[in-house]
Amino acid sequence: MPAVSAGSVGAKHVVVTPKYVMATAKHSCSVASDYKYHTRVFYNYNPQKHTWGTLKFEQGTYYGHNRGTSPEGLWYDKKTDMDWCLVHGKSHDHRNIYLIPYNGIIHGKKVVNGYFV
Fold first, then answer.
1. Which domain of life is it from (predicted)?
2. For the chain, how many structural domains are there in total?
3. How many CA atoms lie within 13 A of 73 on its CB side?
4. What pLDDT, in 10s, does the model give residues 59-106?
5. Listed residue (103, 17, 81, 80) closest to 53, CA to CA
6. Does residue 31 belong to any structural domain of this protein?
7. The domain containing residue 82 runs over which residues?
């Protein structure tokens, strides 16, 4: 994973496990929201294909529609190349398929609806 500079919009603290994916990031989708860093956790599950453990992290330069990737970073499925916003879990396509927010305990901290509480 490339280093993130102080002036970057890139993701921080990215974690990918067989059970969940987590990142502190800015949104990269059309969901109305502030453009600040948020920590979100989703199940490592592709709701379109109903597969577990196939989500990975990607970050890079955006060159236009369907060219390049996202400077904020994104989750993508390694089998289908479908991708989602790190913060909202919204797919970057016309289908508006959302990742499932994680509920559970991570390192002794409670996570509800994908947010640490």
1. Archaea
2. 1
3. 30
4. 987 766 666 678 899 999 999 989 999 999 999 888 889 999 999 999
5. 17
6. yes
7. 12-116
